[in-house]
Amino acid sequence: MENITIKTTINAPIEKVWKYFTEPEFIKQWNNASPDWHTPAASNDLTVGGKFSYTMAAKDDSFSFDFEGIYDDVQENKLISYTIADGRKVEVIFETNDDMVEITETFEAENQNPIEMQRGGWQAILDNFKKLVESSK
């Protein structure tokens, strides 16, 4: 199985980046790959063995699905790794450098969509996250 890696650097302190990445009220604001999608519901038990579930839906209600999984490792302000419901592994590394945080996300590709499409979708979500964190006070 091929791994895909995406990155972004966020101009904000790690405490804010971590909070926005993990708390459902913020997840609902950034977790979409395009403006015609949204996340109407999110739950997150950020503990090893804990479960998360984000409902991703088209704004016109034509389609929705739950993106969910179980946490394998959680190291506050440093690392989150989890297994998606379909068995694929994801690792998110948070590296702090002064008041900047680099996020590196690596995930196992699925077989239904082209690699570039998967990379583009996940990167778009990460870019939304960066935009929200940097634009909010």
From TrEMBL:
Superkingdom of this protein's organism: Bacteria
Which is a Pfam family this sequence falls into?
Answer: AHSA1
Tell me which stretches of the chain form a coiled coil. none
Q: By its UniProt entry, which InterPro entries does this protein fall under?
A: ASHA1/2-like_C, START-like_dom_sf
The Activator of Hsp90 ATPase homologue 1/2-like C-terminal domain sits at: 11-134
Question: Per the similarity annotation, which family is this?
Answer: Belongs to the AHA1 family.
- What is the protein's given name? SRPBCC family protein
Q: Which organism is it from?
A: Pedobacter ureilyticus
